[in-house]
Design brief:
CATH topology: Rhopdopsin 7-helix transmembrane proteins
Helix content: 55-70%
CATH superfamily: Rhodopsin 7-helix transmembrane proteins
Pfam family, one: 7tm_1
Strand order of the largest sheet: 1-2
Low-confidence stretches: 105-109, 111-115, 218-222, 224-244
Organism: Rotaria sordida
CATH class: Mainly Alpha
InterPro entries: GPCR-Ligand_Int, GPCR_Rhodpsn, GPCR_Rhodpsn_7TM
GO cellular component, one term: membrane
CATH architecture: Up-down Bundle
Distance between the termini: 141 Å
Shape: elongated
Mean pLDDT: 75
Number of domains: 1
Radius of gyration: 39 Å
Subcellular location: Membrane
Strand content: under 5%
Length: 244
Amino acid sequence: MSFLCLSAFDRWACTSQSVRIRQLSSIRVAKRVFPIPFILWSLVNIPVLVYCDLVPPTFACWFTNDLFMRIGTLFLSPILTVLLPLIVLILCGLLTYRNIRRVTHVRQQPNQNRLSNWEQQMTRMMLTQTLLNIFCTLPRAIFVIYTIFTIDESATRTFDQLSIILLVDSITVSIISVNFGSSFYIFLLSSPRLRQMIQMYLKRLFNLRHNQVDPTNILLTAPAFTVRQTTKVIGQPTVENEPF
C-alpha cells in the first residue's frame, strides 16, 4: 500500500499547475523517497519479531506482550495498514481529478482532441483504481474495527470462534492483496493508448507484422543499339573511244 500511495501522490504532483509541486514528480525525488517505505516498515516490524510467537491452541502467530498487542491492534494494524493508505488514496485521487479538470486546453483543434483524450484516460484510470482500492480495503477495515472492539474478549473465545476469526482474517488479507496486482490490468482496460502500445510491442517482439511490398517506379531502360547500314556504291568504269 505504501507504493500505491506514492504513485497516487506522483499523479497529483505531475498534474498540478504549480511548478514547485510538479518538480516533486521527478526521478531525483523518487530516488530519495524510494528507501523510506523500506526503512519505515523495517523499524515497525522489529518489535513484531520480538513480541510475536506461535500461541496455542491454534498455534497461530500472535502477540505475546499485552502492551504491544494493544499498540499493534489499536494503532499499527488499523492506521498504518488500512485507514491511512485509504485516506491518502482518496485525497490524492480527488486532488488529481481537480487538477485534471483545471487543465487549460490549447486552442488548436488537434491539440485539444489529444489533450481531451489524455484527460479522459487519466480520469478513468484514477477513478477506477481508487474505487477498486476502496472496495478491496473496506473488508479489511471492517475486520480491524471489529477486532479493536472485541479485543477484551480474545481470552474467552473458544477454538471454533478463533478458527472463524482466523479464516476471516485470511480472506480479508487475500482481498486487500488484489490492490498490488490490479494496477496493470486497470490501466490496460481503461487506456486505449496503452493497449495500442502493448499491441505494437508484442507484434514487434514476435515478428507478427505483415510483410508488404510497396510498388516503386522503376525505370527499365534497355540498351539502344544502332545499326548502321552501309551501302557500297559500285561504280562501273567508262571507256572512251578515241578517234584514230
